[in-house]
Amino acid sequence: MTIPSQMKRLQIEAPGLAVWKDAPVPTPGPGEVLVRIHAVATCPHWDLHIFGGQPMFPGQSLEYPYLPGQPGHEAVGEVVALGPDVTSPRVGASVAVFRDTGRRPQGCYAQFNVSRAEDLLEVPATLAAADIASLELAMCVETSFQQLARLGGIAGRRIGLSGLGPAGLVAVQLARAHGAAEVTCFDPVAERRALASSLGAHRTLAPDAATWPASRETHALDDAIDLTGVPASIEFLMDRTRRCVTLFGVLREDVRFTTRHLFGPGLLLMGYGDHNRVAAETALRFIVEGKLRLAPLITHTLPFTRYAEGVDLLRRKEAIKILFDPWL
């Protein structure tokens, strides 16, 4: 294809103000490729925090105008140009961004973007954008299962998941794909519990102590993943899990590890791992095999010109993920 000199990209210029404006098409440097972006899925916490004027991680500074094209990073597109010495992926390949280093000058909320070749995976061209745009999220969640694999994995075990946002709904499917004998999910929103059931959860419950009394012995979970980062959610799992609770959600407050977690045997509280290609390749394999479906998480498709409307849908919990099309 002929690559234009100009494109459109999104920039958050101030909290609550996003502008869709002209910019030059970037040129790939050594080790980089230029991708024509077909679609970008929201990463709700990133979008809600940055558009709302709050840093994503505690203690970080936040300046506006925010980096152009950011915080878009769950993207799928086509390689249209290669930087010096790059031979793979080839021009014309369908690719998904599986890792965002945060170091590139522009994010994926744009019609074209430059990515490091090593941060892309070639994906089947037959997959619709909704099926694959959120590969980066699937890689992130798979990293938590890699953490549990260090303890022997979850095959044949009773697994608990707290929080049924996009990451939790991916975790339901990955737990089944990794052979969990039973997947129990906790979330206060009935509609999300219903969606988790349709995606393979064996049991879904509100996080209610009366419904599931605290015990690390009777009817306890073998392992659990918290996908909220909320101390009350993490401690709910800790009081009902035998071996390990691993953390996926961004932790903003202290969690209490007390005497009741110390014995019988002692509970492990495990942090997050590193983003990596093996996790992305595992997630992609499950997608191709039909064990991981990302399209059910996409509840709306919008043009970037309606970005503020999309974030408002996320804020009101009327959307799970939004797929933005830069060409509408």
If you had to describe this structure to a student in words, what would you say it looks like?
The chain folds into two domains: 6-134 and 294-325, Quinone Oxidoreductase, Chain A, domain 1; 137-270, NAD(P)-binding Rossmann-like Domain (Rossmann fold), CATH 3.40.50. Helix 1 (44-51) crosses helix 8 (307-315). Helix content is 23%, strand content 27%. The longest helix has 15 residues, at 135-149. Strand 8, helix 4 (166-177) and strand 9 (182-186) form a beta-alpha-beta unit. It has helices at residues 44-51, 129-132, 135-149, 166-177, 190-198, 231-238, 277-288, 307-315, and strands at residues 6-14, 17-24, 32-41, 74-82, 94-97, 112-116, 120-122, 158-162, 182-186, 203-205, 221-226, 241-247, 268-270, 298-303, 321-325. The strands form three sheets. Strands 3, 4, 5, 6, 7, 14 and 15 form a seven-stranded mixed β-sheet that branches. The model has no long low-confidence stretch (mean pLDDT 95). With 328 residues, it is an alpha/beta fold. It has eight helices and 15 strands.
Question: Which outline best applies?
Answer: globular
N-C termini distance: 19 Å
Number of helices: 8
Q: Which CATH architecture of the largest domain would you pick?
A: Alpha-Beta Complex
**Beta fraction of the residues?**
25-35%
Low-confidence stretches: none
CATH superfamily of the largest domain: Medium-chain alcohol dehydrogenases, catalytic domain
Kindly state the percentage of residues in helix.
Answer: 10-25%
